[in-house]
Sequence to fold (386 residues):
Amino acid sequence: MIVAEQKPLNEIKAMLEGCNKVLAVGCGTCVAVCFAGGRQEVGLLSASLRMSTDIDGAAVDIDETIVQRQCEKEYNAPLEAELEQYDAILSLGCGVGVQSLAQQFPGKRILPALNTKFMGYPAEHGIWEDRCQGCGNCVLHLTGGVCPVSRCPKSLFNGPCGGSQGGICEVDQETECAWNVICENQLRLGLFDEMMEIHPAKDWSSARDGGHRRIVREDVRIPDEEKA
Amino acid sequence: MNAEEKTLDVANETFVPEVVAFCCRHCAYSAADLAGGGRISYSPSIKIVELPCTGRASALEILHALEKGADGVAVAGCLPGTCHYIRGNTQAKHRVTHVRKLLKTIGLEEERARMINISAAMGAQFVAEFTNFVETIKTLGPSPLSGETGITRTGSQP
Fold:
């Protein structure tokens, strides 16, 4: 899932400067599951902002709502009828959700309440770990199901590096060396010989380095003449 | 009563805080009953909300009570290790800690939210714990939030 966390309250308050009435919009998908932008978090942030701005003597009226999937315009469409009364929308969606609202409602200021962090795995309740950077060319079949792009701070393809000590990464004592885990997994799977193969430098053009990415699937597109 | 009037009350030493107490029915709520049965009086500031377990008290409900004008909010659950639902009181403690952090960023004193652990047999301790909490809130003074909606500020228990 996409993992995000809330921006500091003061940062959000600064964004709201000049606004009298704001609609906080959560998202019921990824950011709800990682407790950053679901119904509870929309309530907590909205209440915090109402209280804090009231204490500051410049109360901002904040209404709350949530859409099931903020990154898809069909789910956001019902918001349109209510938007006129608001100076801005405070989105508790991921970066995709924020941009989706901005594209859909071009006359309205859309403010991001969250920092989108990564595509992550809930290691345990309350802990999420980076698992995918969306590099566009998956190699997990070669690396024992462990992603060297997201889990190795150096994104090495022929690791481990010299900083790996006792299975721990030199960058962070709480991080397993991804390449140590890869070696252990390949050993367990009887595939360790594959580790002798040297991977050439990765072609990063499939990742963000290749510019703005877009996927077109003609088989699922709706022909122009059939669009409403 | 708005915040300004309450401040005047403080000056006149008549400030009666509004304290919401989310009480677990298995412990703190029963302890309040026991105190009542034993005719031990406690502050009229305390407005008890009975819960099946303090694990039911969400961070949002605690914050909403303060937003609506409560001067303090206590969550009173079972003693550590004795929750009827195993870890409801532990979860409640985490939530109160979270709310206290939020209060600091909001601009309110974190002391306005407190977790209390108590058993059903501790009527006198219930009174002592809440007397202490009410005194803390009196020291802090009225919440700057006016509480225009929600809690009725009568200053005395009905």
Notes: Residues 39-56 of chain A form the longest helix (18 residues). Chain A has two domains: 2-117, 133-210. Strands of chain A lie at 2-6, 21-27, 61-67, 88-91, 109-112, 114-124, 127-132. Chain A has seven helices and seven strands.
